[in-house]
């Protein structure tokens, strides 16, 4: 079977995610992923090698054609575990204190945060909870570009909580559309009670 994934113009991590989905959708055959940047080419090549699949890459005027040959099932046991336990959560609580990821360019930071939250919906196990405070609460209100991703996480059992004081400060409490309103005591309790925490 042959499938083509045209990932030109897609932001990371979509080329890798779409390629992995295409590989999982066939028993044997070839997937050709088309990308237009070096980073995507390297990431997809690493994905194929991690799955023990043969890769052949051709380049034509800055466009890369990555042929991946699948002749065996992809980690059948692992796939079954994930499929059967899709809602599994590790004991990780993520604290998001800004509406962007990293320092420097604001526009890039917002794009990276959008990519990060989307990617959370595509990996397992899921975090136990995501806590939003300070300008991070802008991600859970009307107009946020990540609402659908957060709703998907919440539907899969991830607890979404936002700082009530922060929502009040920015006068956006009435615009909250995903998750619940929390307080500092509960936020501290969630962080202290988790085996692993991550602050963004």
UniProtKB/TrEMBL annotation:
<dbReference type="InterPro" id="IPR003787">
    <property type="entry name" value="Sulphur_relay_DsrE/F-like"/>
</dbReference>
<comment type="similarity">
    <text>Belongs to the sulfur carrier protein TusA family.</text>
</comment>
<dbReference type="InterPro" id="IPR001455">
    <property type="entry name" value="TusA-like"/>
</dbReference>
<dbReference type="InterPro" id="IPR019870">
    <property type="entry name" value="Se_metab_YedF"/>
</dbReference>
<dbReference type="InterPro" id="IPR036868">
    <property type="entry name" value="TusA-like_sf"/>
</dbReference>
<protein>
    <submittedName>
        <fullName>Selenium metabolism protein YedF</fullName>
    </submittedName>
</protein>
<dbReference type="Pfam" id="PF02635">
    <property type="entry name" value="DsrE"/>
</dbReference>
<dbReference type="Pfam" id="PF01206">
    <property type="entry name" value="TusA"/>
</dbReference>
<dbReference type="InterPro" id="IPR027396">
    <property type="entry name" value="DsrEFH-like"/>
</dbReference>
């Amino acid at each position: 079977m042959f499938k083509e994934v045209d990932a030109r113009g897609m932001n990371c991590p979509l080329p890798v995610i779409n390629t992995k989905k295409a590989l999982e959708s066939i028993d044997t055959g070839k997937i050709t992923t088309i990308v237009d940047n070096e980073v995507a080419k390297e990431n997809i090549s690493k994905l194929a090698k991690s799955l023990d699949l043969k890769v052949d890459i051709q380049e034509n005027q800055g466009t890369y054609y990555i042929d991946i040959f699948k002749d065996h099932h992809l980690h059948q046991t692992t796939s079954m575990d994930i499929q059967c336990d899709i809602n599994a959560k590790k004991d990780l609580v993520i604290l998001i204190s800004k509406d962007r990821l990293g320092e420097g360019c604001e526009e890039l930071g917002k794009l990276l945060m959008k990519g990060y939250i989307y990617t959370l919906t595509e990996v397992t196990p899921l975090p136990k909870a995501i806590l939003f405070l300070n300008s991070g609460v802008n991600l859970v209100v009307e107009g946020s570009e990540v609402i659908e991703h957060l709703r998907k996480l919440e539907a899969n059992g991830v607890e979404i909580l936002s700082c009530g004081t922060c929502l009040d400060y920015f006068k956006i409490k009435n615009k909250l559309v995903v998750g619940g309103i929390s307080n500092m005591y509960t936020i501290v309790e969630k962080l202290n009670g988790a085996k692993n925490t991550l602050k963004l």
